[in-house]
Amino acid sequence: MQDLKDKVAIITGGGYGIGKEIALLYARHGMRIALAARSAGPLAEARAAVEKLGAQTITIPTDVAKEADCARMVAATVKAFGRVDILVNNAGIAGPTKSTTEMSLAEWQEVIDINLTGAWLAARAALPTMAQQGAGNILMISSGAGRRGYPLRSPYASSKWAMIGLTQTLAGEWGAAGVRVNCICPGAVEGDRIERVIRARADAMGVPHEQIRKGFTSTAALQRMVTEHEVARVALFLVGELSAGMTGQTLNVDAGSIMN
Predict the structure, then answer these.
(1) Which CATH superfamily is domain 2-188+227-253 in?
(2) Sheet containing strand 250-253, strands side by side
C-alpha cells in the first residue's frame, strides 16, 4: 500500500487501545501521525512507540467534546505537516452501565458529547482542509452496539448508531469534494476495555463475570473476540486506494457476531 506513504493521519483517542494500534499500523506504512487524546501519559507512550517505527509524530492534548480543541487539533497538524489526509474518529467512552431510569442526564450527555458530538466537531474542523486539497478520508469507529440495541447502555448504543448516520450524511455531503467517509463497527475486542465492560455489566446484572464474557463469544461465528490489530487492518484498508470506490459504508469487525 505504497499510496499511503507520507499521508498525514489524525487519530483521536490515539493514546491507547484501537487508536494506538491504528497509529502503529499506519506508521508501518510510512504515514505521518498526529495523536490526539485527553490523557498526557498514554499520549507520550503512544508517541514513543510510533516514533520507534520511524514515523514523524506529534501529540495534541485534545478533548473532542470541545469545539476549540478540535479546531486546534487540525491547525496543529496542518502547521506540523502541511495537510490532513486522514481523520480517524476513534475517541469515545463506554459510559455508565445502568437502566435508563437510573441514569442521570449528565451521564447521558457526557457520552453523547464525546462519542457523537466529538466525532462531528473533529470532522467539521478537518473537512475544509480536505476539501481544499481535493481529497481526504474520514473514518468513524462505531461499535457492534451501533448495529443493534444494547440494554443498560442506552447513551453508548445511541451514540454509536448515530455515528453510522453521520458517516452516510458526511459521505453524501462531501463526496464531490473528493472526501470519502466510512465506518467500522468493532465487536468485542480483546483487552482491558472489554474486561471493564464485562465487570460492569456482570455487576449491574448480578451474574458471574464469566457468564457475560461467554455471551460475547458464543454468539460469534468464530467463537472468539477480535483483536485490536484486526480492527486496525480494516482501518488501513478503508483509507487506501484498495477501497477507493467505497464511501458511506460500515463494516463489522466482530468475528461474525452481527451479519448485516
Answers:
(1) NAD(P)-binding Rossmann-like Domain (3.40.50.720)
(2) 57-61, 32-37, 8-12, 86-89, 136-141, 179-186, 250-253
For residues 50 and 30, the answer to whether their CB atoms sit within 8 Å is no
Out of 16, 26, 150, 156, pick the active-site residue: 156
C-beta separation of 53 from 27 below 8 A: yes
Assigned C-alpha cell, 213: 464474557
Q: Angle CA(30)–CA(90)–CA(241) in degrees, nearest 5?
A: 40
First to last CA, the chain: 28
pLDDT for 209 equals: 76
Whether 150 is catalytic is no
Mean pLDDT by 10 residues, the chain (260 residues): 90 96 97 96 96 97 98 98 98 95 97 98 98 98 94 96 98 98 95 80 83 84 95 98 97 93
How is the chain split among helix, strand and coil, in percent rounded to 5?
55, 15, 30
Domain boundaries, the chain: 2-188+227-253
